[in-house]
Amino acid sequence: MDILNVIWTYVIPFLVVLTILVFVHELGHYLIARRCGVRVEVFSIGFGPEIFGRTDKAGTRWKFSAIPLGGYVKMFGDADAASTPSSELTRMTPEEQDQAFHSKTLGQRSWIVAGGPLANFIFAFFALAVLYGFYGERVPIVGEPTAIEWVAPGSPAETAGLQTGDRILQIDEREITSFEEIVAVVQGALGQPLEVLVQRGAEELTLVVTPEMGSSRDVGRIGISNARFEYNPVGAFDAVWMAAAETVRVTGFILQVVGEFISGARRSDELAGPLGIAQVSGQVAERGLDQVILWTAYLSINLGLLNLFPIPMLDGGHLLFYAIERVRGRPLGQRAQEYGFRIGLALVLALMLFATWNDILRLT
């Protein structure tokens, strides 16, 4: 695959989806900050040098920056994009302090910080409501008992050469009569090469596929399905209700997965980074607008939830500091906050590097 094809197939869809989600997240911070009377100096999509932008009547610089992996809102009174208090706060006039983020009440600051993740959840809900409202409910249509209707990109099945339309006749010389038998054999053969006899048109082929780890330890998967999908129309009320239910379900599922990572029920090499997300974004873009909307909604929930984790540098870290301030009756010291942000930055960078390394190993 040449570099231009990679950029068009994977990089562009990833950056489009990421830009939308970052804009939504930062817009949540911006709108609540303005509602609370805070002057916003910069609204940036991306980091680093500015590529282009404009300044509005309120004095906010809206811009696109060179590194398109994230974004930030810099408010009046911040020393940097991480919302570190400026040393100029004590020398501001009363009118200037009234417009500074760090001069606002604890409740106002908490709402401003929580606005980003909240916007991501609201966006996901509306995206899902639009999806269900225009397309309907997605339901599977089961095909022939042993026919393959879908092969996951990058899966062991694709690597082995299995294709949509193949009928699985035997696995390790065991006759197969239903898809449930395929699942049972594959789940019990994690890491073991399996000889699969398939019928493709008028010919029969023998392929070797090795199941990889599935959704939990010691369970194999090869990445195939024998179901196609269609949409059943639903009413407006049902679309809204289904969107709310799906937002709650996905949020719970993500928390469950995080818990499994922490407890060791899931292996750390399942963690995906920017390259993995870009690969899936490209694959989803090829499957239609409905799948792009669904994927964007799921990523928005992920982004909102991730930012609520109590790690300094993330929104949840700021909320943690505010909770401590509430209990103590005064903020943490400047040095303690600086150390906290440094530790948080180290954790975030280490996690991103580890996830990216996982992506590289998968791609190679």
Blueprint (SSEs and pairs):
Layout: H1 3-35, E1 40-55, E2 61-75, H2 94-98, H3 106-135, E3 137-142, E4 150-151, H4 156-160, E5 167-171, E6 174-175, H5 179-187, E7 194-200, E8 203-209, E9 212-213, E10 220-221, E11 224-225, E12 227-232, H6 236-263, H7 274-285, H8 289-307, H9 315-328, H10 334-363
Antiparallel strand pairs: 1-2, 3-12, 4-11, 5-6, 5-7, 7-8, 9-10
Helix pairs in contact: 1-3, 1-7, 1-8, 3-6, 3-8, 3-9, 6-8
Q: What is the strand arrangement across the widest sheet?
A: 6-5-7-8
Uncertain stretches of 5 or more adjacent residues: none
Order of helices and strands: HEEHHEEHEEHEEEEEEHHHHH
Number of helices: 10
Question: What is the CA-atom radius of gyration, in angstroms?
Answer: 25 Å
Distance between the termini: 14 Å
Biggest sheet architecture: 4 strands, antiparallel
